[in-house]
Amino acid sequence: MPQTHPAIDQATPTTAPPAPPTALSLEERLTFINAAMSVRLDEAKVAYEVNTAHIETEPVDLADVVTMPLTPTLQPPPESYPTPVAALLQRAHHRLLTGGWCSGALVDEDGARCMLGAIRAEARGDSGLEADAAAVLLDAIRRKFDVDSVPSFNDAHGSSRVPIRMVDQAAGLADARGL
């Protein structure tokens, strides 16, 4: 005798069909894209750190990064140091800021001066004061750099940032020494 199977009703579904996806709003899409990009950037950052870990680097001196005001000529000179050598170096620093810096000559054709040229101009003929200022400047430079002389240090730079900063630091050093 043949076996009878109960009939399965194919017309009535057992589960509801999935609802059609609703379109995402612009804000929702931007949120998803932002999350995806953040993940990709984090992965790229880790990959960069791994790939460059063997490369020797020098620490960055923030004084090289922070730039001076765009119009130093419009600023009055700062309050003068009370000691003569410090005041001379401070005036030389201000002259370099306002009149320009050069390398390879005491004074170039535009009137810009090197470090020693600025000191000489501000010493106004006082060779003893000029020599003392140059000695303090060399000492300040040698605290950070291995150099033979102020002119060799001045001429070794392609921009004015470091030489001008060193004249300013030398003024502070001379003031601290009471010179």
Textual characterization of the structure:
The chain has 7 helices and no strands. Helix content is 53%, strand content 0%. The chain has 2 domains: 27-57; 62-177, no CATH class. The termini are far apart. It is mainly alpha-helical. α4 packs antiparallel against α5. The mean pLDDT is 83.
User: Globular, elongated, flat, extended or rod-shaped: what is the shape?
Assistant: elongated
List how many beta strands DSSP finds: 0
Overall mean pLDDT stands at 83
Give the SSE order as H and E letters: HHHHHHH
End-to-end C-alpha gap? 125 Å
> What characterizes the major β-sheet?
none
Amount of helix? 40-55%
Gyration radius (Cα, Å) is 35 Å
* Count of alpha and pi helical runs: 7
Percent range for β-strand residues: under 5%
Q: In terms of structural class, how would the helical and strand content be classed?
A: mainly alpha
Poorly predicted runs: none
As for the number of domains, it is 2
What are the salient characteristics of this protein?
2 domains
